[in-house]
Amino acid sequence: xxxxxxxxxxxxxxxxxxxxxxxxxxxxxxxxxxxxxxxxxxxxxxxxxxxxxxxxxxxxxxxxxxxxxxxxxxxxxxxxxxxxxxxxxxxxxxxxxxxxxxxxxxxxxxxxx
Length: 113
Hints:
Hypothetical Protein Aq_1857, Chain: A, four-stranded mixed sheet, three-stranded mixed sheet, 18% helix
């Protein structure tokens, strides 16, 4: 399952409109020295993708990646009292095997704000 919150849809659409971009948004995996995390990128839809269409926005994820991560949720986090900045949070229900997690930059359980 790929879930994109209403706030994330709004923020992505605002960014795409401001920059005059017409492209699907892809959930990708980034690997770094601190482990793996999910992120967003612009890309075309492929045959091996699962896609959701929301208010004219297409969000895609490779089916193999979704199989490794389980349910994926794209959200937008507003700044809170904890000192976190705003930004996208991409979380999943399953950790990536052999890595630190399969979630946003703050871990698979979110940033704690």
